[in-house]
Amino acid sequence: MSDAFIRTENLTFAYENDEGKEVPAVKGISLEIKEGEFVAMLGHNGSGKSTFAKLLNMILTPTSGKIYIDGRDITADDMTEDDMFDVRRKVGMVFQNPDNQIVATIVEEDVAFGPENLGIEPEKIRRRVDQALETVGMTEYAKHAPHKLSGGQKQRIAIAGIIAMRPRCIIFDESTAMLDPLGREELMSTIEKLNREEGITVIHITHYMNEAAKADRIVVFDDGQVFADGTPEEIFSYPEPLRAVGLDVPQTVELLFKLNKMGGNFNLKNISTEDCAAVIAEAYRKATESKN
Amino acid sequence: MKDITLGQYYPGNSVLHKADPRAKLVVTILYIVAIFLAKSIYSYGAVVLSAILLLVISRVSVSVVLKGIKPLIYVIVITGIMNILFTTGKTPLFQWWIIKVYPEGLRAAGLMVIRIIVLIMGSSLLLTYTTTPIALTDGIEQLLAPLKKIKLPVHDFAMMMTIALRFIPTLLEETDKIMNAQKARGGDFSSGSLIQRAKALVPVLVPLFVSAFRRADELAVAMECRCYRGGDGRTRMTKLKFAARDWFLVIFTVLFCALLVTLNIYFGPAQVVVEAVV
Question: Which residues of B touch A122 (CB under 8 A)?
Fold first, then answer.
């Protein structure tokens, strides 16, 4: 037994389309995710990454293969309903549309929804809700109506609702896709904080390369399979195959990559325009200094 | 459009705002019964006084209450006219064609109009203006809790109400967006006959329904992810507390009903008194 928090073995899932045909969405994925890891999952639409995520917290049931969460085989026949809810508590999920995951008309009532479902005593729920709101920096909005908040704020409320259940792992299923750049930044810093400070395992499904660059590890999905798996530096070192599976390498990374090919020594993690410009300027300064 | 909220909660800090929603629900029902109990002119007076008293202690502004009555003005007027036209008495006050107006009709109309206005004032001041929607649903759920014994899905009903309230602003916003999108492509909602306008709404309603179903689907998955499994074993963060104040409110209302019945017995039905005046 490895120390992986999530482990899948040859996992497959097929759904039935409108004509009643079986369409495979996940084709034999074996993957291990360690506790405390920050994993970004990339892939174009229909690559199976969202389906894979939904298999992990038992929203979908795999066609075949095994999933181990915290050492427990969740595909086993002896899984009771209580076990299932335990898995969902351990592996929380935040979705794309912030509006469609908020249940209550008051922020703190919504954050309390998860713990209430777990049957926790009222005083403890109170404490958890306050803590969760503080973690996402939304304490001052506790009594507000969710529909009056911005997209980024709503999404942070949704996260607070999940962390109030004290999960070990949170899956963000394209949670930044519907937000404006500012909201996206807010959310990314919250996600990073959860991972670095609270030690929560993060699986971040996204289309944005600069978000993926912040992860410890990137898993690229294509056609229901794992296409590539490695650190951001490793993944970005091969822009051609990434383009072949419909993903765009950011221009900054491509520039650094080309410079490296010409004999440069740049870290490909410098994905933002500012960082990229800074490292190139620094290298240029050093080069001219050594010439003089 | 964004500011429409169902229930029209009017934030405040009065005794009525602080009272337990269950107490307020019980009191509202009792109060409605009391209004219909009123028969004599004195009990009507007591009912009108009580409505004014509610207005004072709730500290809701008069203009807000008048705004609440305004949309029902047609109902009130039509009820009044019906009462005037269809109440028969001994001698008509005046006669025109087949219309005969009796003094009894005028009396009945006047009393009915007072009754409706007090009914709207009482129920809105006791419930909608002073209770948040979520407190109201909680109150209903807990009041109906005994019905769980006969397998009525009380929790599910309350959850449906909560979600409906939660999504009203979201869906209104979406309606606005869709209408703007249709307007941008030449859709016209503000001219033409009533039928034409109704027809113009079809291209708004279809996408709205499709999106509502999609939302429902996504919400269901999100709720499952948050371990929702119905009302069994579920706890609540905020527990309702039935305080001394709430008992006082209920007892006071019961006494009020008793007072009305006594007034009816001692002074008889309103007709007698008014007839004496006429």
Answer: 235-239
Contact list in B for residue A85 (CB cut-off 8 A) is 227, 229
* Number of helical (H) and strand (E) elements in chain B, helices listed first: 11, 2
Q: Would you write out chain B's pLDDT as a tens digit for each of its 278 residues? A: 444 444 567 777 888 888 888 888 889 998 888 888 887 788 888 889 888 988 888 888 888 888 878 888 888 999 988 888 888 777 777 777 777 778 888 888 888 898 888 988 888 888 888 887 778 888 888 888 888 888 888 888 888 888 888 888 888 889 999 999 988 988 787 777 888 888 888 888 999 999 999 999 999 999 999 989 887 888 888 777 888 888 888 898 888 888 888 887 787 665 544 444 44
Size of interface A-B (CB pairs under 8 A): 98
Q: How many CA atoms lie within 13 A of B169 on its CB side?
A: 20
Calpha distance A50→A141 (Å, rounded)? 31
149-208 in chain B: CB under 8 A from chain A? 162-163, 165-166, 169-170, 173
Per-residue pLDDT at B5: 43
In this complex, do A116 and B235 lie within 8 Å of one another by their Cβ atoms? yes
To the nearest whole Å, the CA of A266 is away from the closest chain B CA by: 42
Chain A residues in contact with B221 by the CB 8 A cut-off are 59, 95
Burial A212-247 (b: 16+ CB within 10 A, else e): bbbbebbbbbbebebbbeeebeebbeebeebeebeb
User: Which token pair is A83?
Assistant: 């076990």
User: By C-alpha distance, which of B218, B239, B232, B226 is closest to B153?
Assistant: B232
Nearest CA in chain A to B211: A100
Domain ranges of chain B: 15-144+241-277
Substitution target from B224, B225, B228, B239 for chain A, most A beta carbons within 10 A: B225
* All structural domains of chain A: 4-242 (3.40.50.300), 250-292 (no CATH)
Q: CA-based angle A155:A134:B215, to the nearest 5? A: 20
